[in-house]
Amino acid sequence: MRIKFEEVKADYQLGPIRTSNIIDNVSIDLPSGTFTAVIGRTGAGKSSLLKLINGLLSPSTGLIQVGNINLTKAQEKEQLNQVRKRVGMVFQFPENQLFAETVEADIAFGPRNFGFSQEQIKVSVQESLNQVGLSADILDRSPFALSGGQQRRVALAGVLATQPDVLVLDEPGAGLDSEGKKQILSLIKQLNHINKLTIILVTHDMNDVAEYTDHVLLMDQGKVISHQPTRTFFSHQAQLVEWEIDLPEVINLQRQIEMKKGLKLPTVSLTKTELINLLIEGKIL
Ligand SMILES: Nc1ncnc2c1ncn2[C@@H]1O[C@H](COP(=O)(O)OP(=O)(O)O)[C@@H](O)[C@H]1O
Ligand SMILES: [Mg+2]
Question: What is the CATH code for 3-231?
Fold first, then answer.
């Protein structure tokens, strides 16, 4: 599902006053099936951008399109219901929202809420459990008895069970060990690759941006200051320095090799495999 913003502004009501524009004239176009990293320092507006996409926050001006659903300042409740059915939102530390007595009841909550039939709920719970790589014997257990990594996967399964076309995720790897994080991100990549979900991922980790995403959207003070394919984004080193963006480890490694050998490889590599292939092709390895 394609997502489009046209000159969108948004702010928050803070008691009696409204904040200044937290999202400040954003126009973006995220084609269906893309995997976009949203990056930028704390307070840049990343989480607010995600909230706009699933209707948790309304624009004060401008238009948001999610597939053929239009969201504006004066959106109807019906539009909001529709968009929430299509956009699955995985909040930061989603396991904090687990609440039911069993894993099964927790995962079934979303689809039940959306009016799935008993049979559809059963199938959906089973499928999403498979997707996140958990086995059925976990269904009767309390979600609170699981490990942190398992809890996060159950929370993700609860969102997947509603069968969204778009998945927006706010730092889904935060607080997990590197193995747990890798599992979650590989899973998200699969959902993008195989199930063709449009993914929007907020992250601080440039290694993850390089490895998993195809586009990068950089925000600062509520504005989008760069929106480019991931490889292009990481190709302009001077610009990255100016924006204070860390290089992914693999690009650092590439730079070191290039310096040592006194050469320049034709493109920046986004994964170690790519780097090795470039070195072999250039007869450097
Ligand atoms: N519920 C809220 N009420 C008022 N201001 C908020 C609220 N949520 C976020 N903000 C403000 O909006 C700005 C952007 O926040 P946020 O979208 O959370 O940024 P990020 O996710 O990039 O850290 C910040 O200045 C933050 O203080
Ligand atoms: Mg945030």
Answer: 3.40.50.300
Q: What is the pLDDT of residues 189-244, one digit of tens each?
A: 999 999 999 999 999 999 999 999 999 999 999 999 999 999 999 999 999 999 99
Which residues neighbour 251 within 8 Å (Cβ) at sequence distance 6 or greater?
Answer: 210, 234, 268, 269, 270
Q: Which has the closest alpha carbon to 142: 87, 98, 189, 181? A: 98
Tell me, using a 6 A CB cutoff, whether residue 227 lines ligand 1. no
Q: Please work out whether the CB of residue 44 comes within 6 Å of at least one atom of ligand 1.
A: yes
**219 alpha carbon, closest ligand:** 1
Domain chopping of the chain, boundaries: 3-231, 248-285
Backbone dihedral region for residue 163 (phi beyond 0: left; psi -120 to 50: alpha; all else: beta): left
Choose among 110, 133, 126, 142: nearest CA to 184: 133
